[in-house]
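Lab channel / #folding
Pinned by the channel admin:
"Please post every new chain as: sequence first, then the structure tokens as a reply. Keep commentary short and put observations after the output so the thread stays searchable."

First post following the new format, from NK:
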Amino acid sequence: MEGGEEKQGAMGLCCTWDIPPSAGTQAKWVRLNVGGTVFLTTRQTLCREQKSFLCRLCQGEELQSDRDETGAYLIDRDPTYFGPILNFLRHGKLVLDKDMAEEGVLEEAEFYNIGPLIRIIKDRLEEKDYTVTQVPPKHVYRVLQCQEEELTQMVSTMSDGWRFEQLVNIGSSYNYGNEDQTEFLCVVSKELYNSPNGLSSEPSHKAKVRP
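Reply from TO:
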């Protein structure tokens, strides 16, 4: 890859490799033992991001690392999230399995100090948060049955965002003593907003509901 060449990243995001590795290092292979899993790559790939931990490690200029019996550099990190890190250095794209958390890859990208990848993941997470906040609220209705003498108390005790919509007189269905008790259907509504985990919150209503 030539210096300054841009690669198209996932979700339409791009990254630019600033300085290509020297020609003398392009054919040298490097073995990395990340949390017990061995990865084989080249110095050219690891040095795509000059300021990264991986570039400094394989150049042996500033960092010292133990090696296993095969000569692989030992890195005590989660190998699950190292695959996307290495592939990003190879082709400049962030590719994740559907069940892989972007937050986990971000944690590793920050450890290895891979600036372009950190920016891409943060942009994707911010885009997700923005999308959640733009979801329109759901309008939910409830029908409550009450007697005439309970109506004032029911309306006055409505809370948690519920509001009165309509009152329907359904006549006298019950007789208590010598007086008929007029029954009403009270229609109330509220707006429910989606939370970040995709679930809606609906607090309980304090009005008395008759079966």
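NK: Confidence is low (pLDDT under 50) at residues 1-14, 16-27, 201-211.
TO: also worth noting, The first strand starts at residue 6 and ends at 8.
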